[in-house]
Batch of 2 targets.
Target 1
Amino acid sequence: MNQTSPVCPNCGQADKTYKVSLLYLESAARFNHRDEGNQPELDELLIDLRSEISSQAAQNQLLSQILQSFSPPPGEKHITRRIHPDTMVIFFSLLALLLLYKIAVSQPAQLPIILILLVGSILAYLLGRKAVVRRYENHVRQEQEENARLETAVTRWTHLYFCSRDKGVFDP
């Protein structure tokens, strides 16, 4: 129990309130990794609930319930380095110029065919560029919105508290 625990809105007391995120993390360490180390929040909760927890099996069941009930919001923050489609086209166009030079030197008869293919490819990209760029921008925007939603949810989760007296979760 923290010395700065907030007051539970149901029972009006702060002596048996615990941070949900700490309970989750400490329970995960104890339940999944069998780590009995420094877990003050969880240890205080187990002391508060000792009348309800009579055996190791009951304690494991409580830890399992904490892991299920107090888990963080689902989702995964995406950190990607998206490359704008125009950048890719410029890169491959420069590479194509190098290939054109090699073709002009070694197989000059094939140069007109390759030039037609290159110009056709560039025209096809220019005709479909709006759709490609729009799809790229939509994907980037959706990723940013999802990251913002996840960040907000995790921030809210880190502010939640559990009161062992009335078995309720609250946001102070």
Target 2
Amino acid sequence: MQNNFYTKPKFNTLNTISKRKDSVLFLDYLGHFISNSATKRVQGYGTVGLAKNTIRTYNSLHRVVKAFEFAKSEILYVHTVE
């Protein structure tokens, strides 16, 4: 998959679903979820919240979705991802 990082991508916004007032961008939601996830260590029990490897996997997902959006010139919304 080759991407031309020197040209500005053109995003398709012709979908009527994406023009809803309550639409939330998938990457914004995922980034907010990652930044607000708790990874507190509790002695003798392990962790409370998400493990560090899980957060690393979510960061990888964020990177892959961002590359997908750039390659397809589309923006993903939370209500369209099932």
